[in-house]
Amino acid sequence: MSLYARRVTLPAITPVVLQKRVIKVYSEDDTSRALEVPSDVTARDVCQLLILKYHYIDDHSWTLFEHLPRIGLERIIEDHELVIEVQSNWGIEEENRLYFRKNYAKYEFFKHPVNYFPEHMVSLSSETSGVIGHTQILQMFLSSSTYPEIHGYLHAKEQGKKSSWKKLYFLLRRSGLYFSTKGTSKEPRHLQFFSEFSSSDMYMSLAGKKMSGIPANYGFCFKPNKAGGARDLKQLCADDEQSRTCWMTAIRLLKYGMQLYQNYMQPYQGRGGCSSMTTSPMRSISENSLVAMDFSGHRSRVIENPTEALSVAVEEGLAWRRKGCLRLNAHGSPTTSQSATSSVGMSIHRTQLWFHHKISRDEAQRLILQQGLVDGVFLVRDSQSNPKTFVLSMSHGLKIKHFQIVPLEDDGNLFYTLDDGHTRFTDLIQLVEFYQLNKGVLPCKLKHYCARIAL
C-alpha cells in the first residue's frame, strides 16, 4: 500500500484596506484644505481631524456643512453621516462644497427644548395630562411609540409654477409631513401627504426674499438624496425664525431619533456617567471662566446670589467709568499721553476675533445665523450709518438684535457706552468683557463670539 502526499495551497488572506479618498474642506473665509481620509470617515471624524491638526479648542460646536451654491441651500451634515456618501450624491458639474465652522445651535434643543417647541405649535397625545417638562418632550420625540404633533401654517411652493406660493396648514407626524386640504382640519380624509424623510435631506434656504421670490426670509426645503436640481425640491417657508426652527428641529429628531441623541452625548461619555437624559451637559469654557467674584475681603469668593452680583456689576461699572486708561505702547512700556492712550483705545479692538471690520448689517446677521441662534452669540462691527460708532450684534430668543456703541468724550478722555453714558468703558475690549460677565442693558450676557476661522 503506497501513500501519496498531496500539497494543498490555501488562498492568501489579505487584510481589508479601506480605500483612501481626498476631500476638500472650506472655512468661513473661503480658504480650503485637502484631506486624505478613509472611505468610511464620518462628519465628526473630519471635524476632529481638523481640530487636532490646527489646534482649535474643542467645545463640541464644530460642524461640517453641505453647501449647494447653485440652488442656494445648506444643511448640517450630522456627526454620524459618511462624508464620502454625501459627496457621492453630488452631480459632476455641481460646485458643491463642504464647510467647516462652528454651530452653537446644533444640539441646543437638548439643553433648552422649551425654547424650540412653542406651546402653540405642539399638540401632545390624549394620554398626556397636566404640565409636561422639557425632558418628557424630548423623550416623546425619541420614543418609537409616542410623538408630539407639530402643526401650524407654512407657505408651500406649488410644483411647476415659478413663483407661486400657497399658505397651508401643515402637520408633522412620524409617517411624514402632511397638509390639510380643508382649513385646519386634521381628519384623515382632509390630509394630503407632502414629504417623507428617509430618502431626502432637509436644507435651509440661503437665498433672500428678493432673490428667490419666497414670501419671507425663513425658507427650508426637502431634496432627494440622489442628485437633482431645483425642480426636485419641495420648498416651504415659515413666517418667522421661531416657526422655522421648530419645524426643522422636529424633523431632525423624527428622522434620526436616538442616533441624534447619541451624537450629542458622545463627547460627554465617560464623565461620571453622563448618559441620562436628565444629566446637564458640561458647561462651556466661557461659562466656567466668567463668574462673578468678590475680591474685597482677605479671601476671594464666588458671588452666587443674583441680586448681590447685579449690585456688584453696577458698582464695577461706576468704577470703570471713573478709571483712567493705562495701556502699553509698542515698546512694552506704559504711556500716559492722552493722545497715545486714545489712539490705542480706538484701535486695540481690531485684533479681537469678535470684531468684524466694515461688514454690513445683513452680513452680520448671516454670520450669526450660520453659527447658530443661541442666546449670547455676538460680534462687534463698524456702524455703516455713523462712521464714528460701532454696533454690537447678538442673538437672543431666536432673534438677532443690534445695539449701538456710542463714543463719549469727557475731560479730554474718550469712552464707549451702550446705555447713554451710565456705564463707560475706555475701549471696546473692556466693554465686551464687562457684558460677558454682566447682562446690564442687554437681554442676556455675551457668551459665544462669531469669528471667521481660517484653515
Task: Tag the structure with descriptive keywords.
12 helices; 25% strand; alpha+beta; 455 residues; 21 strands
**Percent of residues in helices:** 10-25%
Structural class: alpha+beta
Question: Given the C-alpha coordinates, what overall shape results?
Answer: globular
Q: Tally the helices.
A: 12
Question: Unreliable segments (pLDDT under 50, ≥5 consecutive)?
Answer: 271-288, 321-342
Largest sheet entry: 13 strands, mixed
Beta fraction of the residues?
25-35%
User: What's the end-to-end separation, in Å?
Assistant: 78 Å
**What is the alpha-carbon Rg in Å?**
27 Å
Could you outline the blueprint of secondary structure elements for this entry?
Blueprint lengths: L19 E7 L5 E7 L4 H12 L7 E7 L4 E5 L5 H6 L8 E6 L5 H4 L10 E2 L10 H9 L6 E9 L7 E9 L2 E5 L10 E5 L4 E6 L3 H4 L6 E6 L9 E4 L3 H16 L1 H8 L19 H5 L3 E2 L6 E2 L3 H17 L15 H10 L7 E2 L4 H10 L6 E6 L7 E7 L2 E12 L2 E5 L10 H10 L10 E2 L6
Parallel strand pairs: 1-5, 16-17, 17-21
Antiparallel strand pairs: 1-2, 3-4, 3-5, 4-11, 6-7, 7-8, 7-13, 8-9, 9-10, 11-12, 12-13, 14-15, 17-18, 18-19, 19-20
